[in-house]
Design brief:
Helix content is 69%, strand content 0%. It is mostly helical. The longest helix has 28 residues. The termini are far apart.
Length: 252
């Protein structure tokens, strides 16, 4: 007689749950998202002016170049003054880097305006490249996330359309409307730079917009003086700065 031995099975011990997955990292954004609007717009305007000095030298182009040299010289002096007050090593290095890059840009524009032609291009390219690199390193060092993008204000869209239309008209000949547009952008530049004294929390946004309007003012005044199509890179750079900064400012 065969006996069957029954075995009692204990309930199976439940397996531990797998550890939760770490949260997906935020979208780091593209390289462009980690560079300031001024640096991006500057690449257009500065290198475009290098071509103007080489192929389109004229008295109005020289006047535009001197204005660009003054803008970059003033910006370089401002960052140089900040460097004198800076105690933190990395920030000090960044301030010096921006001051040096703006100095190269100012020298390049002055050289081109005074008849240097293509010899201005190495200075302009080095200055624009160093400016963008320094800004990128500063933002990534301090973990600045890619800025969110919000809607561009209707006023900025309308302004960009007017600037573009006038820019195209300058290619066909000088236009006195450039004097009006230039004066308007000069007023906006003064308003943004001056207003930041009362609204320090808006300093970065408004200083960037102020620089963009300075480029737009110079481009329109040069167009009115007969610089022709060579003002288009400067107008494009100013439009990029003001529009991109407007989008970043309006992000929620």
């Amino acid at each position: 007689m065969i006996s069957v031995k029954l075995q009692r099975h204990s309930p199976q011990t439940p397996r531990p749950l797998p550890p939760p997955k770490p949260p997906e990292p935020n979208d780091p954004g593209s390289l462009v998202d980690h560079v300031g609007a001024v640096q991006l717009g500057g690449l257009l305007s500065d290198l475009g002016m290098g071509a103007a000095y080489t192929f389109g030298a004229s008295t109005p182009v020289s006047g535009l170049g001197l204005a660009m040299a003054a803008f970059h010289g003033a910006r370089g002096a401002a960052f140089g003054a900040l460097a004198l007050k800076e105690k933190e090593a990395f920030k000090l290095k960044a301030r010096i880097g921006v001051a040096a890059s703006e100095g190269l840009l100012a020298a390049g524009h002055a050289l081109g305006a005074l008849g240097g032609g293509a010899w201005s291009i190495p200075l302009l390219a080095a200055g624009a490249g160093l400016n963008a690199f320094t800004d990128y390193k500063y933002r990534t060092h301090f973990g600045v996330e890619a800025p969110a993008k919000g809607p561009v204000s209707p006023a900025r869209i309308a302004g960009a359309m007017v600037d573009g239309a006038l820019g195209v008209s300058y290619a066909a000949g000088a236009s006195s409307l450039g004097l009006v547009a230039g004066a308007g952008h000069l007023g906006a530049m003064v308003g943004y730079y001056g207003g930041s004294l009362w609204k320090p929390e808006m300093k970065h946004h408004w200083h960037s917009k102020g620089f963009g309007h300075a480029l737009l003012a110079a481009g329109h005044l040069a167009g009115a003086a007969g610089a022709g199509a060579w003002v288009l890179p400067v107008l494009a750079g100013g439009t990029l700065i003001t529009t991109l900064q407007d989008s970043r400012q309006n992000a929620k």
